[in-house]
């Protein structure tokens, strides 16, 4: 495991020895593994939140991931102190992309079904488009407008304003928190796009996770106090899944995939994650897959796909690795 982890530290365009030993079939199997782990994670997170508060759920997830990544970095002697010019974006990712987004999503999961939440959060790529236009001066092509319009239509259909009882406590708040989480994630994506890294994303990851762990743990202690829940076998399994699989194995698998397959193809394939989230939530939690949910999912994915294909630079840009945590 350690030699494999050492190969995760790479410069852009560099191929590792492990990568060269992998067959094309193995790479595709890793892609499928990453999609399944992240998709199945939605109902698992919902189960964990029956016992844990959103803050403690987020804290345990990033703490476990931080211990893993830092341990690997120390064992392989690949830890590097980031230079001052990278600190603002690292803080941005730690506080907003990880800590804030996890807290918003976990809070919303107590109010909105897991399958629906998976789809709403996947609208991140839609909100990145207008933010990049405003803050980076990127141009809006016809395809971008089309993708954005279709995606927003999908969000509206997904919310099913004609059928959802918006007067029920928490329904509107939960959907709003999910949209806020997606927009927050999109804003950090724009920040990443504008930043010129001195270190690689892999070298920055331990500091992002450590920063998020400090923020979430501090807030959990101040707001929720010391955890008083019972560590059942189910809860241990949920936390282990979050730290080891959702924030460990899937990360490793998708890093290898992103280094060996075209970025646009990988990004398009990863749109299967919310599909798995919807299906697994229906199977394991008994959530209903309504017509509105199915149509909204299709429209959102179509809008994201159009934007990925039309954005030549963005579609082929390697995504920030915090996205697969």
Describe the structure.
- This protein has about 325 residues and is an all-alpha fold.
- The protein has one domain (about 20-325).
- It contains 15 helices and no strands.
- It has helices at about 1-5, 15-20, 25-50, 55-75, 85-110, 115-120, 125-135, 140-160, 170-195, 200-225, 235-260, 265-270, 270-285, 290-310, 310-315.
Please give a quick description of this structure.
The protein has 325 residues and is an all-alpha fold.
Gyration radius over CA: 19 Å
Portion in beta strands: under 5%
Give the number of DSSP strands.
0
Q: Biggest sheet, in brief?
A: none
Order of helix and strand elements from N to C terminus: HHHHHHHHHHHHHHH
Which geometry do the CA atoms define?
globular
Helix content: over 70%
How far apart are the first and last residues' alpha carbons, in Å?
A: 18 Å
Domain count? 1
Structural class: mainly alpha
- The helix tally amounts to 15
User: Please, what is the average pLDDT?
Assistant: 83
Low-confidence stretches: 1-18, 318-325
Helix and strand layout, with pairings?
Elements: H1 2-6, H2 17-21, H3 24-48, H4 54-75, H5 87-108, H6 114-121, H7 124-136, H8 142-159, H9 171-194, H10 201-224, H11 233-260, H12 263-269, H13 272-285, H14 291-310, H15 312-316
What attributes characterize this protein structure?
single chain; 325 residues; mainly alpha; 15 helices; 0% strand; globular; disordered N terminus; disordered C terminus
């Amino acid at each position: 495991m350690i030699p494999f982890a050492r190969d995760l530290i790479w410069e852009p365009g560099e191929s590792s020895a492990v990568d060269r030993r992998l067959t094309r079939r193995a790479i595709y199997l890793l892609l499928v593994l990453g999609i399944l782990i992240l998709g199945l994670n939605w109902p698992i997170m919902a189960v964990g939140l029956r016992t844990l508060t959103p803050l403690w759920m987020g804290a345990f997830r990033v703490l476990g991931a931080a211990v893993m990544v830092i341990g690997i970095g120390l064992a392989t002697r690949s830890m590097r102190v980031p230079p001052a010019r990278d600190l603002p974006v690292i803080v941005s990712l730690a506080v907003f992309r990880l800590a804030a987004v996890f807290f918003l999503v976990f809070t919303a999961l107590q109010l909105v079904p897991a399958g629906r939440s998976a789809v709403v959060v996947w609208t991140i790529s839609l909100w990145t488009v207008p933010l990049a236009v405003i803050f980076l001066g990127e141009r809006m092509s016809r395809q971008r407008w089309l993708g954005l319009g279709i995606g927003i239509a999908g969000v509206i259909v997904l919310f099913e304003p004609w059928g959802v009882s918006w007067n029920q406590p928490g329904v509107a708040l939960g959907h709003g928190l999910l949209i806020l989480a997606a927009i927050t994630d999109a804003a950090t994506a724009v920040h990443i796009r504008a930043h010129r890294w001195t270190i690689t994303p892999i070298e920055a990851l331990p500091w992002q996770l450590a920063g998020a762990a400090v923020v979430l743990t501090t807030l959990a202690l101040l707001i929720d106090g010391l955890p008083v829940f019972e560590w059942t076998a189910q809860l241990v399994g949920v936390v282990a899944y979050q730290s080891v699989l959702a924030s460990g194995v899937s990360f490793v698998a998708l890093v290898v995939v992103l280094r060996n397959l075209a970025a646009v193809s990988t990004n398009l394939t990863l749109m299967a994650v919310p599909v798995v989230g919807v299906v697994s939530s229906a199977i394991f939690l008994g959530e209903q897959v309504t017509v509105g949910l199915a149509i909204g999912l299709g429209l959102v994915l179509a809008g994201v796909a159009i934007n990925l294909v039309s954005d030549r630079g963005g579609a082929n840009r390697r995504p920030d690795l915090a996205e697969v945590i």
